Amino acid sequence: MVLCKICEKEESKYKCPKCRAPYCSLVCFKQHKEIPCEVSEPTNEVPTRKEITPIGAPDEEDPSRLTPNDLEKLMYSKEIHEFLEYPQLREIIKKLDCSNTPEKDLDLIRSQDSVFDDFTKKLVEITFKEKLEVSNKK
């Protein structure tokens, strides 16, 4: 939980588009805008991901589990990189990542946004195409 930088009472829901300062409401945003903020300079540092500790042993039978090979395919996919050039798509992904009901929200967004729907189909095609072919042969 990140607290609002302005009131320091409520959980922040937003960030200033200029300086990225966290704030919780329109009232706090207006108060923040009274004092000019500085644009945060982008760094050349590669963001590091938080290490995720599995809760239990991986279920080898779970076909939805992405393998390191699957992740590598996504990392080097030109098509995925092209999709991720759209700022709107990146915002949708952030919202889904923070959602309390990601499956429900995923279905809703896919029905409303054709670009996001195409993106999810491409993800599935890249990561599960071979797995589906193998399971269909059995």
What does this protein look like?
This is HIT-type domain-containing protein. Strand 1 (14-15) and strand 2 (22-23) form a beta hairpin. The chain has a two-stranded antiparallel ribbon. The longest helix is centred in the C-terminal third of the chain and has 24 residues, at 114-137. With 138 residues, the chain is mainly α. The chain is built from 6 helices and 2 strands. Helix 2 (68-75) packs antiparallel against helix 6, helix 4 packs antiparallel against helix 5 and helix 5 crosses helix 6. The protein has helices at 26-33, 68-75, 78-83, 87-98, 102-112, 114-137, and strands spanning 14-15, 22-23.
- Helix percentage: 40-55%
Low-confidence stretches: none
Structural class: mainly alpha
Strand portion, in percent?
under 5%
The mean pLDDT is 80
- Give a short account of the largest sheet: 2 strands, antiparallel
**What are the secondary-structure elements, in order, as H or E?**
EEHHHHHH
How large, in whole angstroms, is the Cα Rg? Answer: 20 Å
Strand order of the largest sheet: 1-2
Count of helix runs: 6
Care to count the β-strands?
Answer: 2
Shape: elongated
Distance between the termini: 47 Å
GO molecular function, one term: zinc ion binding
Pfam family, one: zf-HIT
Protein name: HIT-type domain-containing protein
InterPro entries: BCD1, Znf_HIT
